[in-house]
Each structure stands twice: as structure tokens, then as C-alpha cells.
Amino acid sequence: MNEDVNARRAAIRRLLAPRSVAIVGASSTPGSLGGGVLANLERFGFKGEIHLVNPSRSEINGRACIPSTRDLPEGVDAAVMAIPHKGVLDALRGCAERGVGGAIVFSAGFAEAGEEGRAAQAAIVEIAKKSGMAVEGPNCLGVVNYIDGICLTFGVAAPFPPANGRGVAIISQSGAMATVVRAALHARDIGLTCTVSTGNEAVNGVEDFLDAMLDDPAHACIAMVVEQFRNPRAFLDLALRAQAIKKPVFLLHPGRGQAARHSAATHTGAIAGDWDVMRACVEGEGVCLVESLEELIDVCEIALRSPRLPRGGMAMITDSGAFKAMTLDTCELLGLATPPLSPASVAVIGAIAPGLILPTNPLDLTAQALVDPDLYRKTLKPLLDDDAFGSILFGVIFSSPLMAHRKNKLIIDALREFRPEKPVFLAMLGDEAEVPADLIAEFRALGAPFFRSPERLMRALARLDQWASRPLLPAKAAVATSSKLPVGTIPEYRAKDLLRTFGVAMPEGGFARNLDEAETIAARIGFPLVLKAQSPELSHKSDAGGVVLGVSDIAALREGWTRLYANVARAAPDVKLDGVLVETMSPRGVELIIGARNDPEWGAVLLVGLGGVTAEALKDVRILPAGLSADVIAAEISRLKGAALLKGFRGDVPRDIAAAARIAEGVGRFILAHPDVREIDINPVLVLPAGEGALALDALIEAA
Question: Which helix (H) or strand (E) holds 272?
């Protein structure tokens, strides 16, 4: 392993679990940063050495002070900079001279504050680079290590180690978001192992802290809030590691705006925004990407508390017919499956209260649940035994604490009796209605998460199910070295020649430099034909009159050739044509767009969606990791909102989705083999009736 990588990891570990700490800017003033850190260390019972640095004090709370970081003993593990930003650089230089392992810089006023601040942050980087120090921040809230009882933050925190030694680790660029997630999980009695706020990430970012945490079994899952990845390729490598060891990484990444870096030449660039590319890549490497703070909190609880992560269809037991209907609506909206009961479950449940309780999913116990609350237990067992369901949800009305005890004690007794390996959840109907605290505690102790919002629970279950069934990136394989392509727009005729070698199907035809060559091609492929002007400077041929359709014979070919050149000369007089692409006129059919992009940060992604103008107007596309198989791509095409158009909509014949997927597979292999290609755009791809194939009617490649 690289020596620098080992040194960086060692420095990060010293910062996360120091045996000695220096507080630079130590204070006894209530509410001060340095005073807060000292109080937290004492509250957590930190057993290591604490060194206080304050040039104006000889002691604080009976602890001796030293005037400068240059007076520290050699080799302190971590120094906390609880001082204004103007004093940080000198204090860091002192730490470097004394061999301090790492520093936490609370103060703002660096890269986020203008040119002077950027220069100061660059100086932090230089100090760390020369000394090998890890640096968290600046502009951060520090570290709380609950496992080892070390609290290096100024906000008031309390010891809360995970009960069984395993819990959630939080890594967030935003200190506020780290605090919010921490407080929410603590409120649900979920143990945390560590929280890290990385701030400006002058030296060490979220990737470094994730790297340090992945192999520690104490961190059962990792919750991340990241606004910008500074090293996306490193993060993807770490995500792949997490996937290999089956450690869930849950990510909230704000900023879904569709601002693509470049969209002048292709539809692909206009549609595949930065967030979409990020999503395809991180999900392809096994990260669970959530869409809200609430989802992040909820999936963490499910991961920590359930006997296993839920996957597959959900069964629900409720005592409200109206809620049954609402659940079906919500699940359909979320894409969360509610499969029917198996014949065995139908037989058992149908015999419990014939004529009163219908054996369906969701299962409505009706008012019989008031007469016989043991129905919750009686119906749970057959659902636990039913392989159709990956999880079971109780949606129970909480009308009063007394009724809650009456109903739920029997559910609790059933969970104790059955000890289910399948995840079971309780979601109350009643929002903020009073719930006996002992009931919630008992459910949680039995590994059955309690939710006040059924919809929040269903959203979290849908997210986890989608994550479990995501198309993963293929195993990384060596890509054959390809010759570098010329920089700029590669016109259609050349682009098609390149893509054809990767199995991309095209209409019959050829490139003609003059009319004689065009007539030779026509004699070979037959009529009707289409003529398309070819030039690197003419990416949108139709706008310049550079496309002539329905050429029916030699006379029409000659007239069309002349008209095409005249149109282009009039619309784009500075454009010099290479020639004309002469192809068989294709029949009408359903059109897709297939594209690919080599993102400079995230790497290669593939795009499939509805073709023509609807591609940009409706954004009905799927962004996928490049390199997926045709079978996986076909399944993703079938998830398009407009997929019905490919499946025999309104009496039309079903279309050859498999052939379209093979084109997309070839495009994916091409983009992986050509890292110098910025974008590929095939619009439209004509999808013919099932069994008849698909054709790339147009193609454009942008090389960097």
C-alpha cells in the first residue's frame, strides 16, 4: 500500500481517537469555544492528557496553561483550534513543529470569505502537507467519538455510547446537519459511534474520514451529508469497498438542480445534470442515496434496529379500512410492492374470522380488533411465514394510552414469542397522539422500529428496497487502449463508423463526397433514401436544411443533393461540408435517445430515454453507470414513464426493447474505452417491432 496513504490514515485515526488533546484558546468563560471543549471532555470522562494553551492564563479550573503551541510536549495526538481565524496559522505552525498528529479548526473566515481567506486556507494546506498533520475544517464543529468517550466539539454534548458497541457513524460537511441527525437518532434511542463535521475540507475531506471508518465493525452503517465531493473517484472506490463488506452507506446530497456543465452540442449534456451523474455513479457502487433529511434518519434507524435490512414486498396489518386504501395509494406512488397473500396465508387468515376479515394485503382487521385484540398476534404468524413479504408493518390506531396498551401488548408478546428474523415495524395512526413511553421502548428492544408517520416509514422502506435492487456497476475490468480521437465534434458519418465496431446497429448506407458516390450507394441499398449533410461544424443539420427525406429515385437523389447544398450554403455560409451521408429511409416507430458522458469528476455514465424533442421537454430519462449489461439496461428502459409506448400502447405492436438495450450496451462500452470522449448523443434510436431490432438514426460524438 502507498506509504502516503498509510500515513494519512494514521493521522486521521489519531484525530478521531486521540490519547492526548491540546485545546488552543482554552477558557473558563461559559459559552466560549475553548471552554465548551474542555467541559465536554470532562463530561465524557476523557482519560488522556489534556493540554491547555492560553497566553493570558497560567491555569484554568486547576489545570495548568501554556502560552503557545510551541510549548506543547512532543507528539500530542490532536489539537483543537478554538481561536479566531487570524491566530490559526501561527498556532498550526507550532503544532507542526511539535509533531502534533492532527488539528481541528473551528473558526470561519477562510476560503468561504474571499481572497484573503482563500490564501489563508492555502497556507493551512501547505503546513499540513509538510508536516503530515491531518486537519479537520476550518469552519467545522469537530468530532464526537462515543465509543472511546472523546468529545472535541464546543456545543454541549452528552455521552451516549451504543448499547451493544455498534451504532451509526455520521460524516457531514455541515456541522448543523451533523448535529440535527445526531439529535434525531439520540431521540430515537439509537446509539452513535462517531460524528464528524468536515467544514471547508482544506486538507481532509469526507473521503478520508470514510476511509478511516469503513473497516471498523463498531460502525454498523454510515450516514453522510455531502454538498460537494472534492474527490469523487476516491469516494466511489470507498463505496465499492463498503459494498464488498456489506456496510451500508447512506448519503444525502443536496443540490438537485439540472445545471449541466456543457450542453451546447448534445441533448445528453442538456439532460444529464451533475446531480444525475453523481446519483448514477454512487448508486452503481452500492451507496443508498436518500432524498431528504427525514429519509436519512429513518433508514439509519431501520438499518440499526431491524434484524436485517428489508427487501421485497411489504405486508400490512391495520384496523382501518380507509387506511388500507391510503396505503395502497402511497405504495403505488412510491413503487413499494404489496404482493397478494400466498394460498397458505389465505387459508390460515380466512379461517380466523370468516366473513369478517378478508385475507388480503393490506389486511384490515376491522372492528373485530376491538373485540379480539389477539387478532394482531394471530395474523402475524402466517405473514411471517409467507415468503412473498420482506417486511411487515402494523398500522394501528392509537386513540388513547389505554387502548394503545390493550392492542400493542399483544403484538409485543407475539414478537417475543416468534422472535422474527423478518423486519417488523409499528406505524401509529394518530400523529402526535400520546403514546406510552414503555410501549415504544419495548418495541425498540425487540428490534421493531416505531414510527409516528406510516408514510415516512413506507418512504424509507421503498428507498431501501430500490437500493437493494439497484443495478450495480460491473466488476472493474481493464479497458483496451484506444487511439485518441480528434478534439471537437465528430460528424455523424465518422461517429457511426466508430460506434458500429461496438455493435451499435445503423441503417444501411454510406458516406458520399460527390454525387457519383451517392448514386453508387443508392444502387447498392435501394430507395427510398435520406440525405444528411456532414460537417463537424454542423451538429444540428435539420436547422440548416441539411436533411432531405423520402428520396425515391435517381432524379430525386440528384435534385435532393443540389437542394441540400443550397440550403446549407444559405443558412450557414461559413460551413464547408465533408460530404453527405446516404442511408436507407427508415420506417416510422417509437424513438429513444441514447447517450453517454465522461464526467470529469465521476466518470462514465449512460443515458436512455424517450427520443425527439420529448427528451428535453419531459426529462423522461434514466441515467445509469456505463458498462451495464443489455438485460439490466432493458429493465431500466421499461421503468421509463413513457415505457407504455414501447409495449403495445393503444393497439400498437410491442417494440424491440432488447435491441435498443443492446445499442445502449455498445455505447456504454464505447465511452468506457474512450476516456477522451466527452459526450455521445444518439437521437433518435428507432425501436422497431419486437424481433425486428433497433437502429441508431443519428449519432454525434464530442471528444475533448
Answer: none
